[in-house]
Amino acid sequence: MNTQTEKLKIENDVPLAPFTTLGIGGPARRFVRARSEEHIAAAVEYASEKRFPLFILGGGSNIVVSDEGFEGLVLQICLKGIEFNRAEGRHVLVRAAAGEDWDGFVAVCVERGLAGIECLSGIPGYVGGTPVQNVGAYGQEVSETIRIVRCFDRTKMKFVELSNAECGFEYRKSIFNSTMRDRYIVTAVEFELEKGGEPRIAYKDLAERFAGRTPGLEEARNAVIEIRRAKSMVIDPDDPNSRSAGSFFKNPLVSKNDIEEVAGRLGIEKVPHFRVDDETVKIPAAWLIERAGFRKGFRMGNAGISKKHSLAIVNCGRATAREVISLKEEIQRVVLEKFDVELQTEPIFVGSF
Fold first, then answer.
1. Which of 19, 60, 146, 195 is the most exposed place for a label (fewest CB within 10 A)?
2. Helix H segments across 26-82?
3. For residue 4, what pLDDT is reported?
4. Residue 260 falls in the annotated catalytic set
């Protein structure tokens, strides 16, 4: 074991539930808080030497931890720092460390008049998690403005910088959660934002709110947060409906023929959808879930569906991971049975299920 590895402060049996927005799950057998890139490299080396499974913890906003917890090493990314650098023309390059609070980062950029991520306000979690899921909301995705993702490559055991194209961004997808899952640990993300740019007003609720006029960035950000708060999608200790992992299901992508079949099964003329390309459309998962009989406020044991947002599975008080999984599986089963559409989940499942 090298000198750097020996300096790691390894904690034992650390409860993971407090690190998650869902508030469930057992302990981490071993836990390390990485406050520098050197800590990350050392922790990966330590886990490799000991043959411990390794899980990377960010803001905990999109994870479900098993009731038994995690038997390996949990590495919490605590790197901080934001740098602003002028690029060509009106563009500004902004590099944020992976451990920065995402909404706090958006607020700083909006205050500086930098456009490109304002519609992603109010989303919980850390900066480092945004490229992994290609986080998107209200007409924007982080892939539109990400220029570089700095990572630790666990295969080559060195730090690398990946371009936007190398990240393989798609809808709620990247190489980080698909083809190269578990290879890279994000340490920083560089965004290219526009100085003095206008906010993106594409989402229906925003377009209706501003009735054809273009608001300022701050006004747009506040509107997005207000809309999210009304759906309990802003973390609030006083709002039990926000005790969730965010949207639990992705909006399914189906062919145009499939959507006609769904309409036929329901005996209706039209199913709400959004065009993706000439052959593919996206059906709102929330619409399918409600049509399957899972209304807002539905409960199954101590797990339930938010009273304000049918995409969010919430911890109603003392829910276990097993209860959350049981509800998840029941929703998937009924939607598949009724519509022949398979719902894919968004959260990451940690531990043994």
1. 195
2. 37-50
3. 54
4. no
What is the spatial distance between Cα 170 and Cα 203, in angstroms, rounded to a whole number?
19
Residue type, position 110, single letter = V
10-residue averages of pLDDT along the chain (353 residues): 67 97 97 97 96 96 97 98 89 97 98 97 96 94 98 97 98 94 97 95 89 92 95 88 92 86 82 84 93 96 95 95 98 95 94 92
| CA atoms of 144 and 177, how far apart (whole Å) | 18
Lookup result for tokens 């999608």? 233
Q: Which fold has domain 3-77?
A: 3.30.43
What was the pLDDT predicted at 144? 98
Type of residue found at 203 = Y
Out of 100, 141, 323, 346, the active site residue is: 346
Long-range own/partner contacts, residues 234-238 (CB < 8 A, 24 or more apart): 234/122, 234/124, 235/21, 235/61, 235/124
- Asked about 279 being catalytic, the answer comes back as no
Q: What is the CATH number of domain 82-230?
A: 3.30.465.10
Annotation marks residue 247 as catalytic: yes
Q: Which of 29, 35, 95, 172 is catalytic?
A: 172
pTM of structure: 0.89
Specify the CATH number for 240-350; select among 3.40.630.10, 3.40.50.1820, 3.90.78.10, 3.90.76.10: 3.90.78.10
